[in-house]
Automatic annotation (TrEMBL):
InterPro entries: PP2C (IPR015655), PP2C_BS (IPR000222), PPM-type-like_dom_sf (IPR036457), PPM-type_phosphatase-like_dom (IPR001932). Belongs to the PP2C family. GO terms for molecular function: metal ion binding; protein serine/threonine phosphatase activity. This is protein-serine/threonine phosphatase.
Amino acid sequence: MLSWLTRIAMACWRPGRQYARMNKDDILNDDDDSTTGDSLLWSRDLEKHSFGEFSFAVVQANEVIEDHSQVEAGRDATFIGVYDGHGGPDASRFISDHLFLNLMRHARERGTISEEILRSAVSSTEDGFLTLVRRSCGIKPLIAAVGSCCLVGVIWRGTLFVANLGDSRAVIGSLGRSNKIVAEQLTRDHNASMEEVRQELKSLHPDDSHIVVMKHGVWRIKGIIQVSRSIGDAYLKRPEFSLDPSFPRFHLPEPIRRPVLTSEPSIYSRVLRPNDKFVIFASDGLWEHLTNQEAVEIVCNNPRAVCILLSHPVSFWLFKFRTLIFCSYFLYMSGNCKETSQSSSTYGS
């Protein structure tokens, strides 16, 4: 017999809707979405979630998008995922199709949602994608080089859970003592540009002098990839998926002795407080041009405005020259950015 927690877990997303916009055609069918006349840019205005509202904006770098994202908003819980793909769309699409379902399956089995449940859902998604790679690599060998960063947020019973692999980032905006908005980064960037990541890799691979290589002015793992954690990238995790010299971009001179990349996420949880006003979930294209503080100030100074980033000069520059894809979600909690709430009951029981 299912426990009461299990019944809640099964029901919490049931009334919800899924929001994912991966091409312009979907936007043109929705009267309430914002359009700009550009087929590589789109956004969605405010929608309700279990603890407030959300909106999003996407700038696409080219016609074939490797990123996917989703929001599952139900009566008692909210799920957000930003999947920044590389090498192709297969991994990010797979995550979008399976991670949320894996989370719900584990939640039903355990009767709750926790850091461990989120970790298990990510692990199941990685295992599923590697199974797909194993089945497909004979006819599509380059699927072994397809991967994706993965940033996930879940609000459940007043607690925010965040899991991250790669260099997408979650930043929360909270009101400080002087009633000014303050940014707090909730995730750790798993990117070889970070000294701590390079040291971590060197300590895990003391016998490999080329585990991290400076190439064209950028630190890369094995001279190939910048992120140290991901879903997919099977050729850097298991010797069976090594690519031969006919694919020079991904060929390793020596077989790997142990996984170079990992699918172990960084997990963070936080009980939401009355002064927590919104969370930004965004891929690295945003954070290369805005600091955490700049981003939260833009959101705070343009409360509940659709395409707020697109009206900002720095982000407009990003859009205009398309140097990188970015996908940004703005998850608002109840209450105005400029006001402090008087009761934590705003966030539910």
